[in-house]
Write a structure and sequence with these properties.
This protein is mainly beta and 70 residues long. Helix content is 13%, strand content 36%.
């Protein structure tokens, strides 16, 4: 990860954190975007984001600035 961010649930994801991307899900009614990732190729995390100006819209509008493929 190139830049740190705080997800919808208040968890901080620090720059340099790495995981394997497993998939995503968007719920338009709530502007909710869930990223499904694995930090160790065994467990699965759900990173919830809210696609609004008050939430994590800035992150989702500029994903390339936050997430870097390795």
């Amino acid at each position: 990860m190139a830049k740190s961010f705080t997800d919808y649930d208040g968890h901080v994801h620090e720059a340099g954190e790495t995981w394997t991307f497993l998939g995503d899900n968007f719920v338009p009614y709530y502007d909710g975007m869930s990223l499904f990732v694995s930090p160790d190729d065994e467990s699965e995390w759900q990173i919830r984001l809210e696609w609004t100006d008050e939430g994590q819209g800035k992150i989702l509008d500029s994903v390339d600035a936050y997430f870097v493929p390795v």
